[in-house]
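Rotation project, supervised by the postdoc (A.L.). Task for the rotation student: set up a whole-complex structure prediction and record inputs and outputs verbatim in this book. Inputs entered:
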Amino acid sequence: MRISAVALVVVSCSAQGVRYNEGGEIDHVPPPPIPFLSGAAAVPEGPYPGIAVSSIEGTTSNPYAGDSASVGRGRQLFVAMNCTGCHGYEAKAGLMAPNLVDNYWRYGGSDADVFSSIYNGRARGMPAWGAVLSHNQIWDVVSYVRSLGGMTGPRVPGALNENPGKAQTPTPQNKRQP
Amino acid sequence: MTPTMSIRGFDPVRTTLVASLAIICCAACSASRSEAGDVDLVHRDKDPGQWAQQGSDYALTRYSPLSKLDTSNVAGLHVSWTFSTGQIHGHEGTPLVVNDVMYIVTPFPDQAYALDLKKPGTVKWSHTPATNPWAEGVACCDVVNRGWAYANGKLVYNLLDDRTIALDAGDGHEIWETKLADVNRGITMTMSPLIVKGLVIVGNSGGEMGARGWIAALDLSDGKELWRAYTTGPDSDVKITSKTHNFYRNDQGKDLGATSWPNDAWKHGGATVWGWISYDPELDLIYHGTSNPGPWNGDQRPGDNKWSSSVFARDPRTGEVRWAYQFTPHDTWDYDGVNENILIPLTDGGRTRKALVHFDRNGYAYTMDRTTGEIITAAPFVAQNWSTGIDRTTGAPIVVKEKEAHQGTVTNDICPSTSGGKDEEPSAYSPKTGLVYVPAINVCMNKGEHQVQYIAGTPYMGSNFPAVPAPGGFKGALIAWDPKTAKEVWSVKDTNYPVYSGVLTTGGDLVFYGTLDGWFRALDARTGRVLWQQQLGSGIIGGPMTYIGPDGKQYIAVLSGVGGVGGVYAKTPTAPPTGGMLYVFSL
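Outputs recorded:
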């Protein structure tokens, strides 16, 4: 069942916040306004059939390839969807999620692989963003991740499962570290 | 029967009497389920050859009266046997020894091993739960398991995926399991349960994920949830009642857990309960802390944000609050209040006061009256610059405005960093020296914040916080602290790494701790002189313990296997890598 996008829940713009001033009395100050960001109040665990299953071919490439505006939108989404909290502000791994800058891709580093990881989610904690973000938004995030330099070329059907020119072995900092 | 002060080896005159009463009471109490767990542990705590609780006793002293190993012979310590845990994540937690069996639990997937000490290194039984791998992606600080508990023939611990399980300590089969929360709401469980009065007390993690904190009690016999108290929201949710008496003015008032937040921001306010719990059997109170508030970006939540970064004293049977105190109101530095509260006696002139000592993330060492929550002393134990002191009328710290973090800006050189002056790694107390031995961190940070939206299952933070050096030229220290004078007596400093291990003190006047680059050390408890050390295979973030083996020898055991937040500091070119191994030492 598709979960429809819901407006932000954090702090309501119409009501007032509470703070203490130096005299210990309560001032009522409005909380800072939160601009509307496309997204949702919840995104499901992935991957589960029926939640979000991408049907793109394994060789599909990013329709926004080479589009620098897409990279910019992707970075904005990367921050707004809290990806930085898990993957780090430089995407070089945070405490919860792997490095997106290096050459090691547990689930594959091609456009279609990375799209699928974001869209479907993954079993060790990657949410299923396909339930709340559009295809184009997810391609924007793929654009941003590709701009970091570590992604690979497309898989070639029938060929040996190797991507020329890019190492696939994990280096020590790629192992699931805290 | 009135139990004595729950410090092991502290009151030897009463030991025999209490042990006899305990044996009689065990038989009489077997029909009274609610008391059984308690009596079992109080009885075992009196046997220095066993180590039946993570913190050695209900007071969390991490002290053993054993003295076969002492300052004169510890230099001869060597590895007796080892056991691989098969896991590469962080090994927090301390081995237990009960009836010649050692119990350990690994990090995710939280496998339990019972090791037969009569044939050291052999497995009596093991249990591998089917822990949900999705939990790995929502655990902020590595997929650790911070501790496991034993009582009445059961081994009880939490799975990362929000289940508490009880295994038969004899053969490892699962007796019960209880699910307490959902990982897709960003909640995990890493803390060490406390078993008291036939209850299993547990709490949640997820202060970085917009979770709402809670502490709950399960029936030891069948896992049924008996009560749950929240840590934010109205008094009825938090279990603040007319019998609650908070000592300080800023903690007094109705429904502060809701009114000190804008709107209903308290529903995702963090204040989770992921740290240690201590218990005073005479006052019949448990003591626990709460995490930072959520989100990390404080400008989204003006107000004191109670009851984040606080300490609670609660009645274990009902969860009702006797008193609470907020260490760091409106925290914008990730100064969780979850660190252990060690229960100690404090003699002042002729009288002995029931005190607790607590080394907070915010850099202050607090000695408090644990009956009332009054601060006796509070002094910084590492470099700190976010406050100039604690106002003893309001109870609030006096905040340096320039060191607050704000949305859209970066504040530089805030001390301590988000790791705090001490993180969850537990300190230890010696009733012989009267000192507390503190595994300390001396690191500062730059902190920037931005607006963040709550999306369940994702981090609710909005903050970037790179570490920068602190004054003093060292990153960590093992500090011997006098809780009465609030002064450092001596310290062993580490230039390169914060200290992230637990500490053990012994009747032989030894202090054991480990470093992030794998050194396991024994110090003289009175002078701090390093008497013995050995390089282990990986950094140490767990707690050392000691026991008497079937052969009558005294052993020291510790889990090596770096990770947790300490693991980030340990990622240097020369530090050893991850990898779990139990080490057991003897002469």
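Student's summary: Chain B touches chain A through 56 residues (CB under 8 Å).
Supervisor addendum: The mean pLDDT of chain B is 94.
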